[in-house]
Amino acid sequence: MTQKNNRIQNHPILPVERGNPLKFSFNDEIFTGYENETIAAALIANGIQIFQFHHKDHSPQGIYCANGQCSQCMVMVDGFPRKACTEILQKGMHIQALDGLYSLPQKVGTNQLHPIIHKKAKVMIVGAGPAGLSAAIELGSHGIETLLVDDKNQAGGKLVLQTHRFFGSKELVYAGTRGIDIAKILSEQVHDHENIELWLNSPVVGVFSDHKVGVLKDNQQYALIDPEILIIATGAREKSLPFPGNTLPGIIGAGAFQTLLNRDLVLPGKNFFVVGGGNVGLIAAYHALQAGIHITGLAEILPQCGGYRVHLDKIKRLGVPIHTSHTILRADGSDHVQSVTIARVDDLFNPILDSAKTIPCDGVLIAAGLTPVDEFFQQAQQFGFNTYAAGDAQEIAEASAAIVSGQITAKRVLSQIDNSENDTQNIQNLENIRKVLSSRPGNIQVTERNKKREGVLPIFHCVQEIPCNPCSGLCVHHLISIPSDDIMAIPDFIDPEGKCIGCAQCVIGCPGLAVTLVDYRTDALFPFVTIPYELPIDKNDVLGHSYPVTDRDGRFIGMAEVVNLTQTTKMNHTSLIKLIASAEIAEQIAGIQVKSETPPSIQDFPELPIENETIICRCERVSAKDIRALICDGIHDLNLIKAISRAGMGACGGKTCEPLILQIMKEEGIPPQEVVPFSKRPLTIEIPVHTFLEPEQNDDETHE
Ligand code: SF4
Ligand code: SF4
Prior knowledge:
Bound molecules: iron/sulfur cluster
CATH superfamily of the largest domain: FAD/NAD(P)-binding domain
Number of domains: 4
Oligomer: single chain
Number of strands: 37
């Protein structure tokens, strides 16, 4: 095969650093990877999309979760099955695509056995994302012995994948700071507290009826923790979207996409289509553009995208076609996705098949919403643990709300430990803040255009009520105001005395890239316009050239010449592009299209979608048709459906297909009270059997 280099070479926000190169083979061909990267990253970097062929129908399987939760990326490594997304590449590895079911070698060698750890904990927190970290910090600052465990090799949860600046309140939740930097700040605070013990690379594998929690410490030693209080801050997982072709290699969730892009610095494709216009889809699309991926379009089934308008405007200004009131009908391709077909929907969200159009792409990013990872919490409650849920495991919201949720949970725990209600008012205040930070975007208010055309002034392209206020604290002359008790308010610029000096701090610091600066002082007819920019750009390439400029909605409004580009370390990876533009359009300019790419052509798609083709259980490849038939036969117990069809029996433990089976139940008119969900059983991930063996039973157990 022709070897490809799908590695990000230059990123506007992230440093591009790799370990030493090393050679490995895949299907007997030699490739180059790098130390410390996963097998999946190395394969995708080399243009390999197919990791295995399903044993049932030989369909090609590519990476799906990139998180160790399913087994679609299983490959054979030196004769053993391994998940490519979690296994670190080693020099000289012989990797083969898995073809059907694997058989283990006769001799497996000797495994080092470790004693089982038995440990008591005052408070145990599962999940070191924004909620878990903030809960630990709050508890740590009050001297509470806390054990914080996470399955990843670094703390921060999804924050470590977020290259954009966060919204919210600057005073309370680091608004204006990039997610990757918030993760570092919170992690450092955790390390400052000696009474917080952090176990990374340590997945929880089950909570048990004897009030113990099973953890695979350092991914190798089994530990049974006996916590007095258990906080579950396990975050959220993405919802799967059922449509024909949904398991083709190249169709991945937003979390997996961001992992490959922003952690592994590899490109899972060159032309992606995005499904879902909530914040997750809009942000992931922007991350793709930052990494150099062309976005062929975004479909949102609702009449408007549900994410923040500032996120939407950013990608519209970069030329991404937005298809609201559209749904995905199918994805097609032989061994990986080559096109998606979308169609408009009517008022009842039924697709209007006459409107179907096919869009070529080599990847589809699914951002169909999130669902809480709350199985541990539910089980812990069922078993009578003294337990709390925090962050997305409690309620899906922005990461800023999760930080506050962690603080609230910790305060509740502290009140319980002290047996006092002293903090009730404080908790109530934090609850109010959490609610504001969780708010859905509000009304749109467009302010009247300035008519004076003199002096210098910022233009706010931020027209929707969202919980955000960094701009209000950035102006040295205090010319921008957002009431401290109403951070949903749209910023107000008040400058009757003409004090604005054009310092552009408000332009640099706005996380929505929604502030520009128009300076009429040199030439009122052709003022300077300063706009923020976060894609790769080289001053020498753009200086003196004219580019198309767009208004807030991404509409082309004219051409403008680049007269300067400022990039300093203080600006934290946000560039300032200075343009000269006609006064007629200067205040409307919100974006510039430095890169022009011709979008792939759109053709009509002749075939009608066949929904029953859709694969519901991707691990065992069980179709909607098979599951629907069982439901119509009167089987409303998911455990029975599993026993008959194998749906839910795969490596992901039904995490992906359960919501989809419930959706089919609903479509078939089965009342929810008649539906029996999957029984949740440990282990939640696969772990080697030898982990439970001890060197000498009972004698070598470690008690702490
Ligand atoms: S450009 Fe500077 S002085 Fe003018 S409003 Fe923005 S921050 Fe204030
Ligand atoms: S203008 Fe102010 S409120 Fe609007 S996104 Fe920017 S920082 Fe937030």
